[in-house]
Design goal:
The protein is an alpha/beta fold. The chain has six helices and six strands. The strands form two sheets. A four-stranded parallel sheet has the order 4-3-5-6, sandwiched between helices. Strands 1-2 form a two-stranded antiparallel sheet. Helix 2 packs across helix 3 and helix 4 crosses helix 5. The termini are far apart. About 20% of the residues are buried. The model has no long low-confidence stretch (mean pLDDT about 90).
Length: about 140
Amino acid sequence: MKKKKYVFNNLCEIPRLNSEKYPDKISHKFRKGKDKTIKTYKEYYRDIQVISAGLTSFGVESGSTISLFCDNRYEWSVLDYAMQGLSVISVPRGTDSSAFELTFIYKHSDSNFLIVENWNLLEKILEHLDKDIYNTIEKIFI
């Protein structure tokens, strides 16, 4: 039996091609509180497109650097693909890092956008940022 080879020009083709080939098949299952959420490949690709458009509307463009401080979950995956599609430089880190470490990463990554998990994490990071560094952030997303 001959194995089929898959050749992609880039990783961003994978969700698009899956949405065309398997639009109604389940791509993700996850819980939000007590509710179970199911996403199809078509919905997953659509979410990536929506986030890409949203980032673009906020001024994110090719070559922008975004610090992404959140935990691994569905939304992180969508954001990651959206950023790759826009040729953005992603600086990811989980929320298990200290606020001091996240602030250090932000300061030294030349990021001009910041995406954080929640308000509590943002407040902790802002406590460690100098006002001159804080003023370099173009947008903060939560």
